[in-house]
Amino acid sequence: MSRNIIAILRGIEPSEVEAAGQGLIEAGITMIEVPLNSPDALTSVRLLAGAYADRALIGAGTVLSVEDVAAVAKAGGKLVVSPDCNPDVIAVTKEWGLQSWPGVMTPTEAFTAIRAGADGLKLFPGSLVGSEGLKAMRAVLPRDVPVYAVGGAGPENFGDWLVAGADGFGIGTALYVPGRSPQDLAERARQVVAAYDAAMG
Fold this sequence. Notes:
The protein is α/β, with parallel strands linked by helices. About 45% of the residues lie in helices and about 15% in strands. The protein contains eight helices and nine strands. It has helices spanning about 15-25, 40-50, 65-75, 85-95, 105-115, 125-140, 160-165, 180-200; strands spanning about 5-10, 30-35, 55-60, 80, 100, 105, 120-125, 145-150, 170. Strands 5-4-3-2-1-9-8-7-6 form a nine-stranded parallel β-sheet. Strand 3 (about 55-60), helix 3 (about 65-75) and strand 4 (about 80) form a beta-alpha-beta unit. The protein is globular and about 45 Å long. It starts with a strand and ends with a helix.
């Protein structure tokens, strides 16, 4: 069973990604992004896609330009996550046949992303908008467009976000920070999944 959780492996090294991916997938997290401001990020995307494309949705985060999108696609990534809402990036992502998850913080940004063809919305930073802010936005957003809370959402408050209308989460430092061992990451992934399952009921 997979969960609506994107693992954010910011700062990971290519030498670590396959072990990290294995731990995440075995725990039940099957959406994985390597932010492009990580060391040699495209190599990490290529390694993850080569090893796990049949078991997980692999891609990149912090995707800021159309050139970035092309590079992710050529590395085998299928998921494009951004901190901002750039209609050009969204459009090119869809032209490449990839999933587009732009960052939004306001209804204007959310609807701009939806009109541009986004597959889902990354509410970022979630800590600034809060679950109450999401609840207000959910009153006007289409129900068939998933919204993942990122930044300020974690095992301690999954339930609050789900009640407010979140469909899933992006989880970064609660899972991985540079230097964390694959064993530690795998254990944290199991804990995050357990908290998610409990919140889902």
